[in-house]
Amino acid sequence: MSECQYMTGEALPFGTKVEAQKLIGKEVDYLLHGGIDKSGRGYIFPRTDVVKGVLGKHIEFENAGYIHRRSIAEIKLAGTKNGDSHVQHRR
């Protein structure tokens, strides 16, 4: 595993169905590509949710429904290294 590019903490692999299935039942912080402020201020808007399942190329979250894996920039375990902050500044 490697460090997250935008969030602080260790990134979890989720690019394949097998990797995504390992996240089922875990509470994670995830960052969508649309949650990255591209204006130059460096803000990010991560979300926290529990992975409920995997269907094809989609990850199902308890509160957010299905999200395509390509729409997700990063995933890490919730609460690890500032994971409780919902608005963070990029390094």
Explain what this protein looks like in three dimensions.
The longest helix has 5 residues, at 17-21. The protein has one domain (2-82): SH3 type barrels. The protein starts with a strand and ends with a strand. The model has no long low-confidence stretch (mean pLDDT 89). The strands form three sheets. Strands 7-6-5-3-8 form a five-stranded antiparallel β-sheet. A two-stranded antiparallel sheet has the order 1-2. It has one helix at 17-21, and strands at 2-3, 10-11, 27-32, 43-44, 47-55, 58-61, 65-68, 72-77, 88-89. It contains one helix and nine strands, in the order ββαβββββββ. It is mostly beta strands.
Percent range for β-strand residues: 35-45%
Q: Name the average pLDDT.
A: 89
At CATH level 2, the architecture is: Roll
Q: Which fold name corresponds to the CATH topology? A: SH3 type barrels
Name the structural class.
Answer: mainly beta
Name the helix and strand elements from N-terminus to C-terminus, one letter apiece.
Answer: EEHEEEEEEE
Number of domains: 1
Overall, the morphology is globular
DSSP helix count? Answer: 1
